[in-house]
Amino acid sequence: MILFESFTGGLMAPESDTNLWNYKFTWNPRNVVLAGQGGAAKFLQEGKFKYIPYHRLFRRTEFLEIEDYGRFEAYANRDSLKYQNVYGLETIKTLYRGTIRRVGFSRAWQIFVVLGMTDDSYTIADSENMSYRDFVNSFLPYSPTDSVELKLRYNLKIDQDDIIWEKLEELDIFNADKKVALKNATPAQILQKILLDSWSLSPKDKDMIVMYHKFGYELNGKKHQIDATMVCTGEDQTFTAMAKTVGLPVGIATLVILNNKIQSYGVQIPIKKELYSPILSELEDFGVIFKEKEMKYLGYNPLSV
């Protein structure tokens, strides 16, 4: 049996997808900047333990196709194996959990990782007086003649016509007039401030939550595959898809408990049918619906790129 699961927040509905990164903040920006830094990502592939260290995380991606929404990519999300015992999957051969982005996001984000801009372990001297351009330049070699742009492209081998370069310019990180204005800030805190300029939701923006589950199993000697996808779109800056998919299950669960429809006591996680069944059923009334589709079994090779 194989299980692939991937989830994301921060994607934008097509009508609100207005930047080259195809991304805006819909939850804690700090967590986005520090994503992947909690230790090596760990998953199971064909019975073998696999590990991806942080400095390689965003260059090991898997492509996904979501019907009606196009192509996405996913990178490994922390320790996938902590779910193995919880869901009774002790004999599973492949178990992988990932985070979804639009194709190209991870390759561009890797630039920040390589430069050291996502580091949160030290502070930068005189950060409050730095410009965005100064911040970028602080990670590059000294040159009495070359511009910041030229040094960055040369050291990271980015062609001028590469879409990554357009993404960096879109963030206005080479602006000599914009000030960091954060005292004793870490690189990660400064990067977060820069990103907030471009990635904050506008009042009428609609975000989009995407989940993709792939199940492979063998029954009576025959191999099967089921893909389950869920796409949920927000209404505006306040009533986001992220708020909906996080808040509604809690609210529904509260009402179910108050109406004595759940007999279990104490702290519970939603792996029992009496817990998840009524919640999933009512979520459908709010447009939070999984679409399951039986597929031709092709096997699964996570992060083959």
**CATH first level of the largest domain: which class?**
Alpha Beta
- Please give the alpha-carbon distance between the first and last residues: 22 Å
Categorize the overall geometry: globular
Q: Tell me the β content.
A: 15-25%
Structurally, the number of domains stands at 2
CATH superfamily of the largest domain: Dihydrodipicolinate Reductase, domain 2
What does the main sheet amount to? 7 strands, mixed
CATH hierarchy: architecture of the largest domain: 2-Layer Sandwich
What is the tally of beta strands?
A: 9
Number of helices: 9
From the alpha carbons, calculate the radius of gyration and give it in angstroms.
22 Å
Any low-confidence stretches, pLDDT <50, length ≥5? none
How do the strands line up in the largest sheet?
4-5-6-1-7-8-9
How would you describe what is shown here?
It contains nine helices and nine strands. With 305 residues, the protein is an alpha+beta fold. The chain has two domains: 2-108 and 203-295, Dihydrodipicolinate Reductase, domain 2 (2-Layer Sandwich), CATH 3.30.360; 123-185, no CATH class. A seven-stranded mixed beta sheet has the order 4-5-6-1-7-8-9, covered by helices on one side. Strand 4 (61-66) and strand 5 (70-76) form a beta hairpin. Helix 8 (241-258) packs across helix 9. The longest helix is centred in the C-terminal third of the chain and has 18 residues, at 241-258. It is globular and about 70 Å long.
